[in-house]
Amino acid sequence: MHRSSCAALAALLAAAPFATAAGDHEGGHAGGEGEMTTLTGELIDTACFVASDGGAKGEGHAECASTCLATGIPAGILPEGGDTGDLLFLLTNPVPLAEYAAQTIKVEGVAHEGMQSFDVKHLYVQQEDGGFKEVTLDDNHHNMTGGDTKEEDHGHGAHSH
């Protein structure tokens, strides 16, 4: 897939699920509804996955997915046993996840299924021995559902965390 098309599609897809939630509360976040949950599945790049109708996944797409995630294309999880419609966008910075593209991950956080998104609190990548190792996330300023946050503007205007 042409990189500029990939980036444009990803930007459009990343924004679309959130457009309807803009009025939920000041700042446009959907709030903290939902309970903590854990999902296991494949880490994918959402641009190629969506553009290919779900075909861009697995080991054969790992190198491309890694490149896409490294450039900021939104990450997603395709839950184990799920089909293409079960894709959830991961609400976290995709760059630190690039090296784990197409691998099995486990995420802990809050699912916003109506928005096809998952607010990630912890992300783990499966190791060769079957265990999981936590990945350090890089999204401290934008914690949607609580936890340690800083009351700083960060260019987001009038909303508070």
From TrEMBL:
Keywords: Plasmid, Signal. Residues 1-21 form the signal peptide. It comes from the Bacteria. Residues 135-161 are annotated as: Disordered. The keyword Signal applies. This is Uncharacterized protein. It comes from Phycisphaera mikurensis (strain NBRC 102666 / KCTC 22515 / FYK2301M01). The lineage of its organism: Bacteria, Pseudomonadati, Planctomycetota, Phycisphaerae, Phycisphaerales.
